[in-house]
Amino acid sequence: MKSVKVYGPGCKRCETAETMVKAAAERLGIEVEVEKVTDPRSIAMAGVMSTPGISVDGKLVHAGGLPDAARLNEWLSA
Amino acid sequence: MTAETDTPAPRALPDWLWYAGVPVAAVVWWLAYDNLIPFSEGVTSLLPVARDSHTGEAIAFFVYDVPKVLLLLTLIVFVTGVLRSWFSPERTRAILAGRRAIWGYPLAALLGVLTPFCSCSSVPLFIGFVSAGIPLGVTFSFLIAGPMVGPVGLGLLYGLVGWQVATIYLVFGFTIATVAGWVLGRFRLERYLQDWVRELNAGAVVDLPDQRLTLVDRLKIGVDQVREIVGKVWIWVVVGISIGALIHGYVPEAMMLAIMGGDAWWSVPAAVVVGVPMYTNAAGVIPIVEALLGKGAALGTVLAFMMSVIALSLPEMIILRQVLTLRLIAIFIAVVGAGILATGFLFNAIL
């Protein structure tokens, strides 16, 4: 079970990023627990400055803009 | 996520198609842009209204400006999307964190123009900067310059109003961002941050794994930006151009001169008061600016109006409220507002 966090205050892009993570995990057949972090304090604490940010198992892998679909697969299957 | 859900690693187009497609798209763009006048005059002549009537003038303005602004917007957003892929907030923070001297302010303003960030990122960005030890004033220079002197606004000004006004806007927007940041820095405002921001551990600096991008990746970013921004903003473009068309067709020049002419001193503060609550963006407000200037409104008044719409928006303040106390927001508005008023008065006085 991988734990994925999507950081973003709740704009359209952040929602799309969350959908992308879930779809990619389903496609790869990986079980993930996706948590959406919207509190600005927690976002800042994670070191995310440009949203949406994504962390996998506590490690920040992406910040700013939508993730590339191919890279998203790499992060999830790593 | 649509049809591509069943392939393991969707890579939509082969690279060569990108290298070939971009020049082809550029040629198509140029042909369309070059034929705007025959197109709009052709459409207007099909309608059962006299070309030189009020309605005819308004329709001609609308039919010419909508495709023109959308074409310009697409080009500008694509080019800046590609160029901005070389900059990131993380890198900007690293550049700014090393500097405290007076050069921090203009540098922050410059990076504010170049670094991509959407307004929903401004809070995490603000916290990220402040927690890295970047002075508050320098952070403000960055945050003011971003929306105020954005490339989209400058490109549209250049395309619709001419390079002279675009240059004046660039110089003064940049100056306001630099000076306002410096003035705010002198106030020692750190104590007016929300408590939790001040207490935030400055150690929260995370290095992302190096994301090396190929040229095709960058072109892709440009296209994504066009899809996202033009898709979101087109409605404001249509609303702004409609208002511009009504002004162009129906407002008498004498009335415009009385309200927004150079002789009415109160028109500059009035333009700011009207501009702040207006929630739109550069793409929506510049067609209005185009029509106002065409009717003889004074340049300083129009610049003040445009700057207050773009740089002092209420929704932006509400977002920043999460990290700033009301008092700091009030000081911020006062300082930026004073810069905008000074620009407006200065231009009305010398022109």
From TrEMBL, chain A:
Give UniProt keywords alphabetically. Answer: Disulfide bond, Isomerase, Redox-active center
Active-site residues, Swiss-Prot/TrEMBL: C11, C14
Name which cysteines form disulfide bonds: C11-C14
Transmembrane ranges, per UniProt, are none
Domain of life of the native organism: Bacteria
Q: What Gene Ontology molecular function terms does this protein carry?
A: isomerase activity
Keyword Isomerase on entry: yes
As recorded in UniProt, coiled-coil segments are: none
Which residues are in the Thioredoxin-like fold domain?
3-76
Official protein name in the record? Thiol-disulfide isomerase and thioredoxins
UniProtKB/TrEMBL annotation, chain B:
Highest rank taxon of the organism: Bacteria
Signal sequence extent:
none
For this record, the Gene Ontology CC terms, alphabetical, are: plasma membrane
Alphabetic keyword roster: Cell membrane, Membrane, Transmembrane, Transmembrane helix
Q: Where located?
A: Cell membrane
Q: Which segments of the protein form a coiled coil according to its record? A: none
Q: Does the keyword Transmembrane helix apply?
A: yes
**Major location category of this protein:** membrane
Q: How does it sit in the membrane?
A: Multi-pass membrane protein
Q: Where are the transmembrane segments?
A: 16-33, 69-87, 107-134, 140-161, 168-185, 233-252, 264-286, 292-314, 326-350
State the family named in the UniProt similarity comment for this chain: Belongs to the UPF0718 family.
Q: What is this protein called?
A: Permease family protein
Provide the species name.
Polymorphum gilvum (strain LMG 25793 / CGMCC 1.9160 / SL003B-26A1)
